[in-house]
Design goal:
The complex is a heterodimer of chains A (about 110) and B (about 110). Chain A has strands at about 5, 10-15, 20-25, 30-40, 45-50, 55-60, 60-65, 70-75, 85-95, 95-100, 105-109. By secondary structure, chain A is mostly beta strands. Chain B is mainly β. In chain B, about 0% of the residues lie in helices and about 50% in strands. The mean pLDDT of chain B is about 95. The chains are: A mainly beta (about 110), B mainly beta (about 110). The interface between A and B is medium-sized, with 22 and 26 residues.
């Protein structure tokens, strides 16, 4: 079992719709959870961090964490063409991160 | 606002050659990391450092070496380059490496071994 698994893409959504990204992790003592956005040919860029169960909202992005189910998700509301990218889920323990393979999102006009 | 700076951005090596990928950060971060990213894959940790003079292996350290003589610099050395080392390499840093500290990435080095 992979440490961090993300729903396989690519995910295609119409402009203005909600994109839903899922991530599960295997290490029960994981302490921190991050979502990075990576445009093609670019480096990962932090967009959300979450540390406790529940929801965290930042603009059009909402991260949800359920430690009992070992599940973290990212919702992108009112999707824009500029949201087209690969989204990486990262799970932290101590001072290291484990990354999922990423989910590629395409927002079609 | 340089952040994390990596050089070179692109490099082509022949099998068996050696090279050093440079990484420097100006944020006074203690923790630094080297990752590789293969097409369609997530990032794999190669080596990391929790401070000057202290380094440790990550998930995929074979074929690489690192050193950390200053807080700012964390070079990655490839000895005897092999085609399997063709990848994009990212350097990252974080302030304390504590559980809630996100990592900040450089722009990456695209390396091809032919």
């Amino acid at each position: 079992q992979k440490e961090v698994e993300q729903n396989s893409g690519p995910l295609s959504v119409p402009e203005g719709a909600i994109a839903s990204l899922n991530c599960t992790y295997s290490d029960r003592v994981s302490q921190s959870f991050f979502w990075y956005r990576q445009y093609s040919g670019k480096s990962p860029e932090l967009i959300m961090s979450i540390y406790s169960n529940g929801d965290k909202e930042d603009g059009r992005f909402t991260a949800q964490l359920n430690k009992a189910s070992q599940y973290v998700s990212l919702l992108i509301r009112d999707s824009q063409p500029s949201d087209s990218a690969t989204y990486l889920c990262a799970v932290g323990r101590d001072y290291k991160l484990s990354f999922g393979a990423g989910t590629t999102v395409t927002v079609r006009a | 606002n340089a952040g994390v700076t990596q050089t070179p951005k692109f490099r082509i090596l022949k099998i068996g050659q050696s090279m050093t990928l440079q990484c420097t950060q100006d944020m006074n971060h203690n923790y630094m990391y080297w990752y590789r990213q293969d097409p369609g894959m997530g990032l794999k940790l190669i080596y990391y450092s929790v401070g000057a003079g202290i380094t440790d292996k990550g998930e995929v350290p074979n074929g690489y070496n690192v050193s950390r003589s200053t807080t700012e610099d964390f070079p990655l050395r490839l000895e005897l380059a092999a085609p399997s080392q063709t990848s994009v390499y990212f350097c990252a840093s974080s302030y304390t490496g504590g559980v809630n500290q996100p990592q900040h990435f450089g722009d990456g080095t695209r390396l091809s071994i032919l």
